[in-house]
Amino acid sequence: MVTRTKPGGELASTPRSTTKVNILVVDDDPTKRFALRTILAPLDENVVEASSGGDALRQLLRNEFAVVLLDVRMPVMDGFDTAQLIRQRPRSELTPIIFVTALDEAETDMGRGYNLGAVDFVFAPVVPAIMRAKVTVFVELYRAQQELRRYRTQLETLVEERTIALTAINRELEAFSYSVSHDLRGPLAAFDAMSDKLLDGGSRLDKALRENLESMRESSRRMTAVFDGLQMLFRLTSGEIHREEVDMSALAREAIDELRAQDRDRNVEVDIAPGITTSGDLRLMRVLVGSLIGNAWKFTSKKSGARISIGRETVDGESRIFVRDNGAGFDMIDSHRLFGAFQRLHSRSDFPGAGMGLATARRIVNRHGGRIWAEGAVGEGATFYFMV
Q: What Cα–Cα distance (Å) separates residue 36 from each residue in 32, 57, 122, 369?
């Protein structure tokens, strides 16, 4: 039975296709061919007869067959020679062959037959019920294979359609990214510069006006940070991934050095395990490590004795890299929100930012076909794991 989905989401069953399949009977004796046709008649399939090995090969060139019933003893080209030629043709190299013979087992070279790809031997006198049962197995197998071919064709068509749709979406995203970069950032930059000039007016501005201008400038800079984050996400969706062996320990040290240069007043204990490597795109791995370490650096900013660890561990045979901190942490109930763009689990006043770092990290890991997740507790820190 083939299962289909109704519009309401329920599964509906439709009868399997009743198209008859072909069965090839090969024997130089017309009486035996007639007997086999009569035996197979209750199956209600399309039985095709061939009077010789050459005739059988011609039939196999024209049609596909679920199974071949092949006589061993035939003049000119016997059953074994015919089977060998059948197996040499790509179209029929996997077609099941059942040898039918009046010889007894002692006189039949069964080993040769099985080496030529025979699936079974049937010896005379043929028992009709047994013959039908054997043939039915291969008829049903053939139907199942045809069904799988149809599914594969449908899947390939669906993948092609989705690929075209995704390509169009990516082009739209690129156009939007360009718009963000040139059409929106320009006015924001001009507004920021203008507010700076007004604030430089010094004592000529009263307190309320100065506070309003500073608030507007801060809002402008937050919007700029959001646009920067969006552009980063868009860039991560394009371009090919070039995998190579990446020294993640070295990238982690680079990220820490940059953060320390930007925030010289902070004293953070950092432990980076040596020799951590992985296969990935170097450019994207640098962004990934920078995002995760930057996240740990930010959320340990209010912690005395802040610690950040970067290492690798193996659990249940899986090797994973982690970034661990003892900072603000989070409630595991909210873990599903961690990697969403613009999602925040803490107030902006406590931990400023655009909320794009972890979304960027997840996008990079997904593009590598990997997995990223986090564990943590409020006030006890967080650990981010990933595998690429």
A: 6, 19, 12, 55
